[in-house]
Amino acid sequence: MGSRGRGRGGGLSFTHEQLQSFGINRGENTATTLAPPPLFPKLEAKPLPLNCDAATDYMVIVKDQFIEYLHESPAYVKPNTRTDGIERYSDKYKQLALDAKRGKVLDCVWGNMPAELRPQANRVRITARKRKLDDANVLSKKLQTLEKKETLDENDETAENKDENTVKKENENEDDEELEDEEEQEYEIDEGTDYANNYFDNGEDYDEEDDNLDDGPVY
Amino acid sequence: MSHQLGRVVSEILHQYFGEIVQKVGHDLFIYGSKPIPMIVKTTGLPRKQVVESLRSLVKFDLASFEPSFNEVVADYKLNPDNVLLLIRYPRYLLQIKTKFGSEAEILVEELLQQASCTASVLLVTVAAKYKDDKEKNITLVKLRDIFISIATARYIQQAPVADKSEVPSLEPVATIVPDIDIRQLAQAMATDTLADVNDNIYWKVNFDRFHQDFRDDIMVKAITRRIDENAGELMHLLLQQMYLTSAEWAAESNPTPALDLRDAVHRTDRPDCDRKLLQQYMDHYLRVLEENGAGFVVRVGEAGGGQYVVRGRHAATQLLLAALDHTVTERLGSKAARIFRLIRTKKYIEEDDIQKHAMLPNKECKELTYKLLEEHFISIQPMRKAASSGAMAKAVYLYHIKLHDVAQSLREMCYRALHNTLRRGQHTRAAHARLLDKQRRVRSIVHSMRVRGEPQQHIDDHTRAAHARLLDKQRRVRSIVHSMRVRGEPQQHIDDHTRAAHARLLDKQRRVRSIVHSMRVRGEPQQHIDDVEETLTPPELSTLKDVEARLKQLSAAQLALDKNLFILNWYFMYPH
């Protein structure tokens, strides 16, 4: 009941006196229309005639010519033809007409355009994305080094058999290290939450800092 | 960046560059600046088409780009102002034609079509185009001279130069009037080796220079209408003096001494002004210009026989006010215009005082005032009284005009009207795509028959058979229109329907003309030409005439609206 004491009734927001000052008399306040305004409202006054002199005629002609030129040029981008699956006799002619226009590329100053708009943009992209391994030379080199390694390993195999025990030990050591690593990782994960940390301060370290300061001069 | 502007820009793009460029342009207008993948995503168009549209937009300087954060990809941005300039192209051509003759017009037209072009390519293509035209007698030497003179007068300028990066940044360069080697060009033209000519300076049309001309014309014309031809000439000379001493669009020019002006009057050779009279009474004319010239010119000092300043900003405001007065008169009638002018002269005025001063009946006056308020021509400013008794006297409502806001709303109106006229013209083309297509097919059949050298009789038979169906359709449309008119449907609908039939007719007329032309060129007997021309029947011809008149009216309306927009933009050019 926020409106109590201010204005009467829910519908009107003005008093009669206020309405009268706006020029609305008693009974003239027509009900609000709920229909949307017409799409083409009636013109109240006929618009003035346009002046049609030779200059206007000239400009109209020039404008049409310019638009026609643009429509014939590749600047006018044509939509892809959509087929509805029905073959028509005219399809051939349509295709011919389209092909004649489609081949052309807009004649631009390509240096002033971003690279992605230039006609050879696709080629540029491919070279930019080239992977190292695709190059035959690099690939063969890599294979060669791998081969060499393999032959070296084969040579070492006899030696390896002799030192089997040491190797085993080494393996065991490595295993141990791996285990430790895993444990460490788990520990770190546990540390992830704040609750795992011990923030309790029993006050023992309270005076330690001062003592440290006294220990030696600060440079 | 208003909604109406977006609609106009999109409609213009549709008319000039087709549906797909329109989609891309509208997308850019809504989102500001974005890279290609984003445009592809929101428009749903294939990447290739988006790239093609962007090429068109960038070429004609309707969109700009700048490198986005990863340097290889560009962000594109639409320039709506440049799109609106497309409507003004005919006016540029008319201007250059009246100033420099038809050769200059041909050069500028070619340059507008190419957007930017090297001097050698431009000259050679134009010369090649008109090589066989004996009437115009265009030679390379003549073209070169005109090119240099319009470059000197800054109607064309050097296009910005790009650096060699993935996304080039365009740096504007100072225009240097070039030396063009005619012999080399003539050789290149004769041997068709234009590509070998080493010319990498690109040129484009300098729109701003044309706009200065338009502004001068408007000011001179305004003074001529207000005072007389001699005063107009004086205004013209003052503007010329202004160019010598101050920036082109300066709000107020540097002072020009009357002595300089007197010298200029001695030198003037304009046919439409009485030089003797102007010389004799120059001081009087200056006085009248100052007192009665809408404040375009003011006297600021006495040195050198009086110093005068041209006030461009004030002139723009005055012209805007005149345009506003007209708009109010045409929209709401002369009584509303009276109230509008009253509020303007009183600056801030109470409602009761409007009634007193406008001398209108109480109720009518209030109605008109509220209507003006509703259409955003005037604004209201409540003034609260601090402490007073009684509910009524609590606030005073002052009516006033916020010129900047009103100018904005007038511009919106212009955009909306422009959009409507464009839309109207577009309707014909869109609604009857199928008929147009049919027409094209007829043409291709005729063409292929002609190539195969079949007798003319067969060709005519084919065209007639194809046209019989079209004629039938035309008849049906007309009967629908008739019945609609009888039923008293609004003119709007009838117009739409009549125009529906016209797209095809217009196209047909063009085709027939081109066929006739080609036949004439090939020297075919008159008999055949007549036969083809007869495919356009008398009723079709009469409808055609009707439609052409209407389309011309729409185009003329667009040009007139553009003139209005020019004044508005001139007003907005100065900070307020």
Automatic annotation (TrEMBL), chain A:
InterPro entries: RNA_pol_III_Rpc31. The keyword Transcription applies. Keywords: DNA-directed RNA polymerase, Nucleus, Transcription. Residues 172-193, 202-219 have a biased composition (Acidic residues). It comes from the Eukaryota. GO terms for cellular component: RNA polymerase III complex. Residues 149-219 are annotated as: Disordered. Residues 159-171 have a biased composition (Basic and acidic residues). It is found in: Nucleus. The keyword Transcription applies. GO terms for biological process: transcription by RNA polymerase III. Component of the RNA polymerase III (Pol III) complex. Belongs to the eukaryotic RPC7 RNA polymerase subunit family. DNA-dependent RNA polymerase catalyzes the transcription of DNA into RNA using the four ribonucleoside triphosphates as substrates. Specific peripheric component of RNA polymerase III which synthesizes small RNAs, such as 5S rRNA and tRNAs. This is DNA-directed RNA polymerase III subunit. It comes from Papilio machaon.
From TrEMBL, chain B:
One of its GO terms (biological process) is DNA-templated transcription. It is found in: Nucleus. One of its GO terms (molecular function) is single-stranded DNA binding. DNA-dependent RNA polymerase catalyzes the transcription of DNA into RNA using the four ribonucleoside triphosphates as substrates. Specific core component of RNA polymerase III which synthesizes small RNAs, such as 5S rRNA and tRNAs. Belongs to the eukaryotic RPC3/POLR3C RNA polymerase subunit family. Residues 8-65 form the RNA polymerase III subunit RPC82-related helix-turn-helix domain. This is DNA-directed RNA polymerase III subunit RPC3.
